[in-house]
Fold this protein.
Amino acid sequence: MFNNKTIVYTSGTFDLFHYNHLRMINYARSLADILIVGVSTDELVTSYKMPPTIPFNERLQIIEALKTPDIVIPQHSLDHTEITKKLNIDAFVVGDDWFGKYDYLKDLGVQVFYFPYGTGVSSSSLKKTIYDSYEKELYQQRKAKPVTVFDQNAADVE
């Protein structure tokens, strides 16, 4: 708490920004007088999963363009102990896919909220949908492709 204001921190990769990202940030905003949003750097993300599709600076600008955050900062670590102390964080909001991971913050006096994404859209599901759609289209194009002279000559050699 700072000047009787509740400071809430939420963070994420925010790759392929979508509705569930917005819902989580808006939920964090509803708890906060001051909302700080951390955007994971590319280096941090690649330390535990595939690199983001959208580069860090662009993801940061997308979050900065939202009206809900008061402050947007880079997130360099999944350990929030230092940031919690430096910024006097009262509450931390993260998606429930991280359930239990940040319970250690409670020992620092921080309330931890695991926001329920529920079913539906995620960056991973969006990437899979795009990939599957691309693969299907590519298969259809290859299937419909006419035989060329080169293809015929190659078949005759076999």
About this structure: The helical segments are 19-31, 42-46, 56-65, 81-86, 123-144, 149-157. Strands lie at 7-12, 34-40, 71-75, 91-95, 111-115. The chain has two domains: 7-121, 125-157. Residues 7-121 form a domain with the Rossmann fold fold (CATH 3.40.50.620).
